[in-house]
Design brief:
Helix content: 25-40%
Oligomer: single chain
Mean pLDDT: 88
Radius of gyration: 21 Å
Order of helices and strands: HEEEHEHEHEEEHEHEHEHH
Low-confidence stretches: 1-33
Number of strands: 11
């Protein structure tokens, strides 16, 4: 999806002239209220523009197509663009490495992070979150002809391929699995496809993306965790009005089917609820 061009100065100037001539001002729309919401007092870095931090290297959520040479696109990118459309705001993306992304938000360099940020207690103590736009449980992935695993209890004594630094490593070992250490999903799934391990535990989104882009894979989901992780847009604590507006826009996008449409494009199913 092409980047939005930032061209609001002329519009703002024209609006000021019209207001002076009429002797009245246009009231700001309520959050999620469409084009007029651009006039609301959101405390934006740049008036009329939503400045968004994202990595730009995190497929399928935020990345450049055409092998990295194309426009910025992705699941998170399309959703935040749709939110901005609902609010009547332009979008300016600031591509930022993950290690620096929260520091940049704290410093006021951008208005929001759109980069699959998981909601947790530690972050909620410091930041405001939108309504989650991604919900994903952990899953056990096995060969599609393997019926020996249908629950996490069935991992006891089985072998799994896991990154030793991930939460999924802990879940696998807690379930009694014998873990083969790998660097990430690509190596884990290769060992599984070769029959060198019985399973791998990972996020459902990761598997759905892999299925969408590589089908048929010869793999399936054998079981899911009872609890699902949630990802949302992140704001500093002074952005209450902006968060309320974004939540209103997300509600409208859910109701009109936009969220489900974007999700199906990237994952083959609706992962937004």
């Amino acid at each position: 999806m092409p980047r939005r061009l930032i061209a609001v100065t002329a519009l703002v100037a024209a609006a000021a002239v019209l207001t002076a001539c009429s002797g009245s001002s246009t009231p700001a729309s309520t959050p999620g209220g469409g084009e007029g919401s651009a006039n609301a007092d959101f405390g934006l870095v740049q008036e009329g523009t939503l400045t968004v931090a994202t990595e730009g290297t995190y497929r399928p959520f935020s990345f450049h197509d055409d092998g990295g040479a194309g426009d910025l696109t992705g699941f998170d990118v399309e959703i935040i663009q749709a939110v901005a459309d609902k609010l009547g705001l332009e979008v300016k993306f600031q591509e930022t490495q993950w290690d620096a992304i929260f520091a940049g938000l704290d410093a006021g360099r951008f208005d929001v992070i759109a980069n699959q940020v998981s909601v947790n207690d530690e972050r909620e103590a410091k930041y405001l979150f939108s309504t989650p736009y991604t919900v994903s449980p952990g899953v056990i992935v096995v060969a599609d002809d393997d019926d020996s695993i249908s629950s996490f209890a069935d991992l006891d004594g089985k072998s799994t391929a896991q990154s030793l630094t991930s939460n999924w490593y802990e879940l696998a070992t807690d379930s009694g699995a014998k873990v083969e250490a790998v660097e990430g999903w690509a190596q884990a799934v290769e060992l599984l496809r070769q029959g060198r391990v019985d399973a791998t535990v990972n996020d459902k989104l990761t598997f759905l993306d892999y299925e969408t882009t590589n089908s048929p894979t010869g793999l399936k989901i054998a079981a899911e965790t009872d609890e699902a992780g949630a990802q949302a847009f992140v704001f500093t604590k002074d952005k209450e009005a902006l968060v309320e507006a974004v939540d209103g826009a997300l509600e409208e996008l859910r109701a009109d089917g936009t969220l489900a449409e974007i999700s199906d494009k990237y994952f083959g199913e609706d992962v937004t609820k």
